[in-house]
Amino acid sequence: MKEYRPPYREGALLGLAVFGLYILTLAPTTAWWDASEYITTGHILGIPHPPGNPLFVSIARVWSLLLAPLGLSVAVRINLLAAATSSVATFFFFLVGHRVLASVIKERWMLTFGAACGAVMGATAYTVWNQSTANEKVYTVSMAVIAAVSWLALRWYDRRGEPEGVRALLLALYLMVLGASNHLMSVLPAPALGLFVLLAGPAVLLTRRFWVRAIPLVVIGISFSFFLPIRAAQNPIINEGDPVCESAASAAVAVFSNGKAGCPPLAASLSRAQYAKPPITERQAPLGHQFLNYFQYFDWQWARGADLSEVPLGARMPATMLFVAMGFMGLLVLWRADRMIFTYMAVLAVTLTVGLVVYLNFEYGFSLAPEIVDRNAHEVRERDYFFMASFIFWGNLAGIGLAGFWSALSEHWGGGAAYRRTMPVLLIAFIPMAYNWEWASRAGDYATIDWAYDLLMSVEPYGVLFTNGDNDTFPLWYAQEIEGVRKDVTVVVLQYLYTDWYPLQIRDQTEPERQRPFDGQFAAGIYSTDSSPPDQSVSLATDEVMAAVRGGALPADLSLSLDGVVITYPSGLYLDRAVRIALSMIHDSAGRRPIYFASSAGLLQSLGLGPWGVRHGLATKLVMRNLEEDAPDGWVEGSARMGGEWFDVERNLTLVYDVYRYRGLKDRELWSDRSTLTIPMQFQLLFTQLADVAAIESRPIEEIAALAEAAASMRVTALGGSRYLERR
């Protein structure tokens, strides 16, 4: 089809329109889960969790610098990167749809409308849209790569045998290899592209000239991963995995073997060794359930707001079945239009659905299989974002089917003017936009940054704060490194203490010469601006001692003096590596740094230190004292039914009334991510407990009522939001 002219201008305009939609619904700051980690590491050229995503970090840094003159916050800049890369994917998938429909629809204006329908449906699929309004993951970059490779595959097909076609194929190959240093999702078009080339034009693979250019491109693309050891050697403040190598040769082996050999830290990072995921032959949940989990996420894409329930087979099902039918209709249009292109698109569809489900091998879905009561057997959150490429692709496939149906319907009614009379059928393309807007939008949502601010402000100067996972750790990193909030606080995430590298980084970053000072602007009237930095690190353990720590049962009683109080752990008690290192840090820091825990359960209780905890807002401070003596003035013990925790009442009231921020936390209309409802629940519990201790202390009834009212407000959010309650 040499006469075919790609509609680049129309595609660019559509991409800009989608970009505008994403801007309207863009998050104004950071978000939950990995968003804070990626925003922060992208801006500071840090290294996020394995495999380190060097391409994303580099692109994000350049992007952030380019947008800096606009005066936008760092979070908005990086969130705009997600919006822009998703819009690029929309642009390329529009071109793909237009090229396919060109074989069955002759009128160019109809081609444009038909292809635009698919692009709009793909761009407004729930997960695609939601992940394009905050840079929570790196997948929007890979989604753009998949779309670009698909378009280049069609350009090669149309120009095979010509230099332009060979260049398109080489560029597609390079993008996949380079994209792998962003995420392996970028290589998902490889099976489809390989079979496409073998069936449609294998001669190109037999030419020496092709391989002379292809091999260097592959080497160059893979080489981008050298960013990791180079940057790690410079000790950025966030340096996960610490993939430093002793020699360039060992680094090269690790890079070109994709972590199967060579430099151990780099190899471990590239292969994601710390996650110890089982092989796909060892299913973490029944395969049938894993396909049901995929269908659950597919069911969300086209009319998420039609049903509040997370499980399928509800009010969303008519829209879901419609889009299933249109997608298969799109495959039928492809079959009739061009069998070779059908092969590429069909194999890609299978790879992005069946192939991904088998490869990802998820545990039981977060909101599925309630009969599996062990939460450790479930995923810790919904994993729909892994299938973003699948959903945007299916939306475009459904658009091809819708355009084919429109064409057939118009022909049935006589063609000509019938095309315009039957155009209302294309309004189906706006179903996802209408039903997903409320759920996908993150506009005006400041809940994450306010949570981070509130938690950090709960800690006294130079405190050590033990956290538990992504949502009480990554937002704190963002607040500290990007917004400069309480950089003096040492955040220690318990899960990372299992690694070899993280405890060493915490120790080294808190040496007196590297300890970051307390900024008096955050004194908030409760902390002294004259606080002196500690004279030693959080940990005194040497490299050798850290490396030797292993989990196991204590061979004999262990007695430790913590700020003058002796704690004895009996022989036979099992303490794993992370707990042992945390206990060592507490021992070395006690009396020199305030020790805090982001949860009054968890580590505090497992160490047997619960009786010495006192609540300071969202955090619990460890205060070693003689438990047989009266508690300090101003402390009140809550009732047993509310947990029986100790509260420094005045400190708590100052924090919740004068210090904390609650944007997006009180009286929320809709909290779409059910897996993060524990955040507003913590605020609800805090206010409920404060009302309890206020009553015990016989404070004025108005004060108790105000605390109870705040708890009720937080409860609305903790249950999903006011609109969620109205629709239940």
List the helices and strands and how they pair.
Elements: H1 8-24, H2 35-44, H3 54-67, H4 74-101, H5 108-123, H6 126-131, H7 139-158, H8 163-179, H9 190-200, H10 208-222, H11 227-232, H12 248-256, H13 264-270, H14 287-300, H15 317-337, H16 339-360, H17 388-412, H18 418-421, H19 431-440, H20 447-457, E1 464-467, H21 474-481, E2 490-493, H22 502-509, H23 543-548, E3 552-553, E4 558-562, E5 565-569, E6 574-575, H24 577-589, E7 595-597, H25 603-606, E8 613-616, E9 619-622, E10 635-637, E11 646-648, H26 649-659, H27 678-696, H28 701-718, H29 722-727
Parallel strand pairs: 1-2, 1-7, 8-11
Antiparallel strand pairs: 3-6, 4-5, 7-9, 8-9, 10-11
Helix pairs in contact: 1-4, 1-5, 2-3, 2-4, 2-21, 3-4, 4-5, 4-7, 4-17, 5-17, 7-8, 7-9, 7-17, 8-10, 9-16, 14-16, 15-16, 15-17, 20-21, 26-27, 27-28
Description:
There is one protein chain. Among the domains are: 320 residues, no CATH class; 171 residues, no CATH class. Helix content is 52%, strand content 5%. The chain contains 29 helices and 11 strands. Helix 4 packs across helix 5. The protein is globular.
How many helices? The count is 29
The strand order across the widest sheet is 2-1-7-9-8-11-10
Query: Unreliable stretches, pLDDT < 50, 5 or more residues?
Result: none
Sheet/helix structural class? mainly alpha
For the terminal residues, how far apart are their CA atoms?
A: 54 Å
What is the number of strand segments? 11
Strand content: 5-15%
* Helical content band: 40-55%
Mean pLDDT: 93
Radius of gyration: 28 Å
Shape: globular
